[in-house]
Give the backbone structure.
Amino acid sequence: MIEDRFLERLQHLVDYGQRRILGLAGAPGAGKSTLAQAILDAFPGRAVVVPMDGFHLANVELERLGRASRKGAEDTFDSAGFIALLSRIRAQRKGEIIYAPTFRREIEEPIAGAIPVMADVPLVITEGNYLLLQRGHWNAVRSLLDEAWYVDVDRQLRVQRLIARHMHFGRDEDAARTWVQQTDEVNAALIESTRERADIVFRWE
């Protein structure tokens, strides 16, 4: 699933001797989580995934802010909290356990303290839409990454994946298509503009 040239880059990160953080950026539905899992499978016990999606604002807060209809946009995350966690992970002390949040699609909510990050794990993979964005708090993320990959895939396939995902988690087909066009694809256009900040592009074929 992962070509040798990418595995070689990953091996270098894992074998470096100190904590390394790899960022996987890309549009919704590009396959970031799939790639992160493939890396975990390739380096069992030597990597952990800390998803940006764990920093989604809770639905009740999105309602208060009037942003519920734009969930997934750059201002619907606790970007400052995400940066603070990455900073802690970079400076993690021997024997320390750092807990990261995750996001559960079945309830559409973040869950705190769900992912233990052990100090002796050499590679931390963080994946999300806005890792390379150059505005607001997001602008600080790139400097916390040792390497950044932009994950890409055929647009038509990506949109099909998104529609199927939304339907799987409760929307009917019309609602899923509307959400993809009015929300996901608006975000995708912004994310696409950040790809030049990546070290390499990983494209699913």
Observations:
- The first helix runs from residue 4 to 14.
- The chain is about 35% helix and 20% strand.
